[in-house]
Design a protein that fits this description.
Rossmann fold, Immunoglobulin-like, VIT, 692 residues, alpha+beta
Length: 692
């Protein structure tokens, strides 16, 4: 199917998506979300609607259903190949069909197909998901409702069926035809101190005694100009806890959904330790692709992403310990290193690095992270100085799983600390590379918390290694715990640790208790944290803990539709379908066969537009003094391949952009999102951008 491309200069036909409404329920550090997409066909012909939208990569999507003319049609989670075939077959027979799936190339992009939407018909599609909320440096729990989906830079060979390669239309923000609303309920037994947001909210309304429950909603008229961020401050977030959830009674025992599952949350009281004698080798990988010139957000006077990343890097550089080693790489379509190899940190090398960081520009074209990572990992290690990698990027890559796999394969030799810069940074990439290397991730969306986040990441990297981490269980005879979460080998001071375990065997009588103990060693001393808990499982119709446990398992095994080893694919499919949690190998499919007669007539496709956020004034200009590039965001321009070069002190931008013929990119060299056509890409009709 061919998608319309380019910027829409005006709304030429009604858009079937009318509104998105979100109901959010946060209990302690777990969020349950129900999002409803409301569609209406105002045309005189049946439609197939296609909508691409972002999702936090930690989200466990477990339910999808359609409300059609008062009837609810629940979707079934199937093998993705089977779901696609069933959808196409249903459409060809004139049935209404609905498909929801995760993109093949990224865990944080979803797309939804609505097939055979009859003239005058209204449909409400509801998807539900749960996720753990990360803990910020200041103790806040952070929930983000993603609203920004940035264009992703396309490499040659990127699969054609990825929704990231499809040229879904974009419109100026003020012309976006659908709205979003959100109502959030927050509850904690420890009491709620305050709730903050980057968006306008209604006044907070406390619902319970001692401020244990509160409700707040997004102010009317919110457009998709930024991700919606909530910061929730509880009176106490450090208390360890264990929650045991009853399994699904109708499911066979010994299955993940059939057995009780325990969620264990520790906040280890790791003591202050003497700095390690091994300072470390600090390598900083800075995204210098064209999209980094885009502003951090749509707010007035919002600084470019590259400037925010540079400020963060400068702060860290000034705080490095004397005697360590460091180097800085910039990457785009090519990559550059400040020094041929890592140099010792002293006043001279620091000042030289700071000077050249200030000269950095977003001038290296596309977002190709794999090659510089391979160069960094392939370099010689420095004895006594373990590698600590810091990555600064807006995450606009299409080969997300390949990058994560490369980091994971080198996970034993380093830790990766990743910074997502600006609105819409890929959570799949930023969280993924930190998770597989036992590092930590941060998201920089505003200047107010940048300093604390940067220093927290540096402090983590300088901590002495916590060793011999283990979890032991004290359970009644006949009951055992099977770990579902990956083995934890690194714990940082001030970090929360969450693990999941499947309880197998005979559950004891009522009022029995169990215990779990976290043990670790630090600089030759042993420490342990214990917590006792009730073995009387609680019932939850949504099976929240089971879904989160399944997601934790899938994040370990599922490396994308094309990157997952064959040995793990079977486990991914089994757990995904058994627990009803979507994966890269599964999709939700719902078919409405209850129509009085099949839909007749030609089926027209309508691609739901995404907002065009960043103004043309922020675009980099073409060489030769041309006008700003007119595209959906700052372009990640495909550059001719170049080898790595050492930039001497007198040549801070020796590589820069290479000229193409006469030094100017013509409009037909650009696709809808400003990416230049390289030698391995064929120009497609209609791919050049149109003027706003």
């Amino acid at each position: 199917m061919v998608c319309p491309c380019g910027l829409l200069t005006r709304q030429e036909e009604p858009v079937p998506l009318k509104s998105i409404s979100v109901t959010l329920s946060i209990c302690e550090f777990v969020a349950g979300v129900s999002a409803t997409l409301n569609y209406e066909n105002e045309e005189k012909v049946p439609l197939e609607a296609f909508f691409v939208f972002p999702m936090d990569e930690d989200s466990a999507v477990y339910s999808f259903e359609a409300m059609v003319d008062g009837s609810i049609i629940k979707a079934e989670l199937q093998d993705k190949t089977e779901a696609h075939a069933n959808y196409e077959n249903a459409i060809s027979q004139g049935h209404q069909a609905f498909l929801l799936e995760e993109d093949d190339c990224s865990r944080d992009v979803f797309f939804c197909n609505v097939g055979n939407l009859r003239p005058g018909s209204k449909v409400a599609l509801t998807l539900k998901y749960v996720q753990e909320l990360p803990l910020e440096a200041d103790g806040a729990l952070r929930y983000v409702l993603p609203a920004i989906l940035n264009p992703r830079y396309q490499l040659s060979g990127c699969p054609e069926d990825s929704c990231l390669t499809m040229k879904t239309p974009v419109v100026p923000l003020e012309d976006l035809p659908y709205t979003i609303s959100m109502v959030a309920t927050v509850s904690s037994q420890h009491g709620i101190e305050r709730i903050q947001s980057n968006c306008s909210l209604s006044p907070i309304e406390y619902l319970g005694d001692n401020k244990t429950s509160a409700q707040v909603s997004l102010a009317d008229g919110h457009k998709f100009d930024r991700d919606v961020e909530l910061l929730i401050y509880y009176s106490e977030v450090h208390a360890p806890s264990v929650a045991v959830e009853m399994g699904e009674p109708e499911t066979k025992p010994d299955s993940l959904l059939g057995d009780p599952v325990a969620m264990v949350s520790f906040y280890p009281n790791i003591p202050e330790a003497q700095p390690s004698a091994a300072c470390g080798e600090f390598v900083f990988l800075m995204d210098r692709s064209g999209s980094m010139q885009s502003p951090m957000s749509n707010q007035n006077k919002s600084q470019p992403r590259i400037e925010a990343a540079k400020e963060t890097l400068i702060l860290i550089l000034k705080s490095l310990p004397i005697g360590c080693y460091f180097n800085i790489y910039g990457f785009g379509s090519s990559y550059e290193a400040f020094f041929p190899k890592s140099v010792k940190y002293d006043q001279r090398t620091m000042e030289e690095a700071l000077r050249r960081v200030k000269l950095m520009r977003a001038d290296l074209g596309g977002t190709e992270m794999l090659a510089p990572l391979q160069a960094i990992y392939g370099g010689p290690s420095i004895p006594g100085h373990p590698l600590q990698l810091f990555v600064f990027t807006d995450g606009e890559v299409s080969d997300t799983f390949r990058v994560i796999k490369e980091v994971e394969s080198n996970g034993q030799k380093h830790r990766c600390f990743s910074f997502g810069i600006g609105e819409g940074a890929s959570t799949s990439l930023i969280k993924g590379i930190a998770r597989v290397s036992q590092g930590a991730s941060e998201f920089i969306t505003g200047r107010e918390r940048m300093q604390s986040k940067a220093l927290r990441a540096l402090k983590h990297s300088l901590q002495p290694v916590v060793e011999d981490v283990s979890l032991s269980w004290d359970l009644p005879q006949g009951l055992s715990a099977k770990m579902l979460s990956p083995e934890q080998t690194v714990i940082f001071k001030g970090q929360r640790l969450i693990v999941y375990a499947q309880l197998t065997g005979m559950m004891p009588p009522a009022e029995s208790t169990g215990g779990v103990c976290l043990k670790y060693a630090l600089q030759g001393k042993s420490f342990e944290n214990k917590v006792a808990f009730s073995l009387q499982p609680k019932h939850d119709a949504n099976l929240t803990i089971h879904r989160l446990a399944a997601k934790s398992f899938l994040q370990t095994k599922d490396m994308g539709f094309r990157e997952t080893p064959a040995s793990d694919k079977k486990d991914v499919l089994k757990v995904s379908i058994e627990c009803g949690v979507i994966s890269s190998y599964t999709a939700f499919i719902a078919i409405n066969k209850d129509l009085n007669k099949p839909v007749q007539g030609p089926l027209l496709r309508r691609d739901i537009p995404r907002p065009f956020i960043f103004c043309a004034a922020s675009m980099p200009r073409l060489r030769g003094g041309g006008a700003p590039l007119e595209a959906s965001s700052c372009p990640d321009v495909l550059q001719p391949r170049m080898s790595t070069h050492y930039l001497g002190p007198d040549k801070p931008h020796a590589l820069g952009h290479k000229k193409k013929k006469e030094g100017v990119f013509s409009p037909k060299d650009l696709s809808y999102d400003g990416q230049a056509s390289s030698s391995h890409q064929q120009d497609q009709p209609g791919n050049s951008p149109t003027s706003l």
